[in-house]
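Chapter summary example.
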Amino acid sequence: MIVINEKLGIVLDPDTLTVGVSRPGFYKVNLAPIEEQITVMEGAVDDLLNCLDPTTGFNLSQPNREGALSNAGFMTFFMLGITFAVLAVAIVFIALGGGV
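The structure predicted for these 100 residues follows.
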């Protein structure tokens, strides 16, 4: 076994190229704690990738909320469009002397 970090007890098995946790004086590859963290990270990555599709929802969202991101995005940009349109009309109105 190749010791990666003595303080944390992390070792590498050169035959299988797996990383594991060791006990003092006895190096045995134990992947359970590392696999748990990898599973949590994979779930977070899948949730982030699913956010790119507006027809899906978050993993922790309430049931039947698919498509909520699409509606929220539409309403956000609709309100931004209205805001900038009113601002543009106001600038044109002031530029033509309507504000004096």
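To summarize the output: The radius of gyration is 28 Å.
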